[in-house]
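Checklist before submission:
- one chain only
- standard amino acids only
- sequence pasted in full

Submission:
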Amino acid sequence: MSSWWTPDIVAELKLGELEGTSFGNYLHTMRFFDLALEDFKAALARTGLLEDSLLVVFGDHDAGFARNAGLAATIGIGADEAAWALNDRVPLFVRIHSANSAPRGLTGARALPAGQTDVAPTLLALLGIDPAPLPYLGRNLLSLSGTSGNVPVPRPYGDWLDASHLFLARGAASVCYDVARRATASLSDCAAGDAAARRARDVSRFVITTDLQERLRARLNAAAR
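Returned file contents:
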């Protein structure tokens, strides 16, 4: 049985007991997106544009499903809050014009925690533009390695994540979680990271609400002279 979300022309997968469920409809939709993206890539290739293009695909939010034990088992993660937070990801895929001509070390996957503020400076760097003198709060992810990239990435509602810790902001019931040990840690272990995440969040909000982008760029340009 298909719904208006997954008409028969889209529903190509055989999902068994997931058929007709919200998660099943989501899988059909993602399959349709995969096919559409492949068609787009093929069209670029046919017109000779693919090798001169930087192809970027990213998501801007999670799928919005209820976080219950049944769905956790289906996708193969734990049902606790930390497990959901650690697996709460959106994709960022970047295809450089050719694997053979890609800069050395820029192929494959990276596990460095990052956020959407990092997308723009990273893409500028790939296009040959140095983002360092520009007023971005994010980082060029391609220039980071090891501990140099281990800064807290703010998440909604005061949570944050870095390579070592996950922090769940719950007021007096806040939790510091050691990512490597997959166990709760002392709140003091997250104190420095929490201060940095709060500052990043406050600065980001201040830049937007007071329209500081142009003023910051002018100051950076003046300092570079």
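Reviewer check: Residues 1-6 have pLDDT under 50 and may be disordered.
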